[in-house]
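Q: Could you write out the predicted structure for this multi-component system? I'm mainly interested in how the pieces pack against one another.
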Amino acid sequence: MSNGDIFAGAVTGAFLCYLTYFAQFRANAHGTGATEGTAGEPVATLGVFSTIPEIRNPVANLVTEIIATVALVLPILAFGLTEGLGESGTLVLIVSLLVVGIGLSLGGPTGYAINPARDLGPRLVHTFLPIPNKGTSDWGYAWIPVAGPLIGGALAGVVYNAAF
Amino acid sequence: MSNGDIFAGAVTGAFLCYLTYFAQFRANAHGTGATEGTAGEPVATLGVFSTIPEIRNPVANLVTEIIATVALVLPILAFGLTEGLGESGTLVLIVSLLVVGIGLSLGGPTGYAINPARDLGPRLVHTFLPIPNKGTSDWGYAWIPVAGPLIGGALAGVVYNAAF
Amino acid sequence: MSNGDIFAGAVTGAFLCYLTYFAQFRANAHGTGATEGTAGEPVATLGVFSTIPEIRNPVANLVTEIIATVALVLPILAFGLTEGLGESGTLVLIVSLLVVGIGLSLGGPTGYAINPARDLGPRLVHTFLPIPNKGTSDWGYAWIPVAGPLIGGALAGVVYNAAF
Amino acid sequence: MSNGDIFAGAVTGAFLCYLTYFAQFRANAHGTGATEGTAGEPVATLGVFSTIPEIRNPVANLVTEIIATVALVLPILAFGLTEGLGESGTLVLIVSLLVVGIGLSLGGPTGYAINPARDLGPRLVHTFLPIPNKGTSDWGYAWIPVAGPLIGGALAGVVYNAAF
């Protein structure tokens, strides 16, 4: 798959997510629904679509995304060393659990995009969809979950070539 | 397996669930047992058997069930493209985790029937079983978790044939 | 493995569990440790070793154990129909997840022994170990998690032979 | 992999963890961040790096680490008896779930190092890194999560050779 295919998939997925939770998003308009905050107020909905850093610190957030991406890409490259693993269904399971593990261990500070298309596509959808009380689309942060995975992916390739 | 077999399985499973939790259902009659609500009152028991939408909106609920069913059936069709996967036990694991993932991500609005027999059979069992304080069987909603999966399954086939 | 081997394993496991949590069990003597109850009082420790029914109802508890055991043994018998599955490591994963699934869905009423040795061995260990404030070993219930799995296992065999 | 490689990996991992959560660690300096305690006070950060016993009891803690290590190493040795399992990706999944299972069942009293490098490397990193309000590195406990896994690993080898 090309990066464009993945981007198209992320946009499509974000739109289908909007349709899936359509009644919940609409309920947010009146502060009567499942997505309302503690005081009955509507809540910002960006977190349903894009990643949001826990503490806003561009350098630290970028480093977090780089490290988490290396933690994803380097093992996947290394799996290629095991003959026959790539053709088996087991690899699907291992990579799925790897992504879950990265989320649990390294995902806290930034919400782990670890893929340049993961964050940008859904953020675009959030910007253009007519969701009531949707709040900001936070475009000031948008470059980090794109640049971080791009740098992390390249770095993983460098480490892999140096090590094997 | 035919749809009739799956329906019979869903009915049998719902009845065995009733037997398994027999003492809990009976305790609900007196407001003394494990299934009582916060104020010591008995609780409606339909949620043990059938799906219940979080926000009642026929069109939105139907769309949710269609999307979630496509998210189940389309990958299963695509798994058939990987030679040898169908015969391995790994496919069982992958499909199980796929269902869990659909439940976590798309299951919130409707409780994800994603199979025409999943909801109808257990709802019938709920209607006929002599469970004390069982509340309504909510037949007005029953067509959605049947029609949604039927439409979604057909749609997944159309998408698959167009794409591969 | 014979039933005697499994029983010996359950006894050994319960004793190793006691050693692993030795400091926690001892802290329970003074109401100062990790296992104390909400009011700082020591708590009964049987639940660490044996199963305890949520609602005490011999017939219903027995039926629950029978159904849960059939839900374990019948699929395992059926897995034997898939050639090559028994020799692969994948079967280990599938059976592990099957046990987890039975616990989540059918385990609530009785704590799911679903094996005649699972409950009896650890209950014996609880009876003889000098655990402070250990409470009752509840021998009146002990026959159910033995008889239920024995009946359920036999029933699964009958169903399997009738169906395949 | 040699023990030295694993130790270097544990040190590297602990340092990357520090970089990943850099903004969170810095926020702890001012009692303003995500890692602050309930009363807005900074919290000790050792638990992010090393294991900490729930109840401080050297003999009991050592026994816990020995038992948990045997529970890891003995099955791994036994997996070698199943022909072909070692070359398959399935073994990766089984061992991962084994570690998760040991953590859930035996991990409570000591935090389960079950590997001599797991605790020592990250504790060294905690000692030398300039983390604000990091609290003690608790070197008095450091020998237990090294000695326990070494004894447990040897014991598992003895049991394996005696049994197979």
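A: Regarding packing and overall arrangement: Chain C has a mean pLDDT of 88.
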